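The freezer alarm interrupted the setup, so I double-checked each line after restarting. Inputs confirmed:
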Amino acid sequence: EVQLVQSGAEVKKPGESLKISCKGSGYSFTSYWIGWVRQMPGKGLEWMGIIYPGDSDTRYSPSFQGQVTISADKSISTAYLQWSSLKASDTAMYYCARHSGNTIDYWGQGTLVTVSS
Amino acid sequence: QTVVTQEPSLTVSPGGTVTLTCASSTGAVTSGYYPNWFQQKPGQAPRALIYSTSNKHSWTPARFSGSLLGGKAALTLSGVQPEDEAEYYCLLYYGGARGVFGGGTKLTVL
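Predicted 3D structure, all chains:
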């Protein structure tokens, strides 16, 4: 059974750094792209970027380029999304999702990030 | 900045049929944009329904179908059930495997 299990909710202050994770299981982690999707409170889905764990090839949406870093550790089947300096506007639910070609098939359960002073 | 546009809201009666559409600011949507459709209910992660315009996942109910219609991607629900009330999002892929989601359609079953 394919599963993407994300790390737990985070509460941070502006300016702090953060790295959230997404662990894949039930499939060959290095053979599928993993992407990240943002959903701000009461808003729609936003495609942030994807990584191919097999060779760490990474693509970003222009809206998120330079704002976040996507990485992966294939030895532990885990993808990451990180910020070096959080802003209040980063408050959102973040989902990881498996990409099979030009398709998203499986989603993680989401990680709620709250940034507040 | 590429924009993908969906109807903000639609209402359908139980047992009825409704079509949601997905347009691209770059022009007509073709199969080369690999349209995907997702359903999201309150408090839940999205769920994949349709990929590559019209292909269903193994878990997609038969009443959901995807197509291209008048230069847009379309999702049709036939024989709508009360549990189909949800937000629906399309996703189009542009160059370099980069995707853009539509703004979502809130479907009310009334």
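Quick read of the result. Chain B is about 0% helix and 55% strand.
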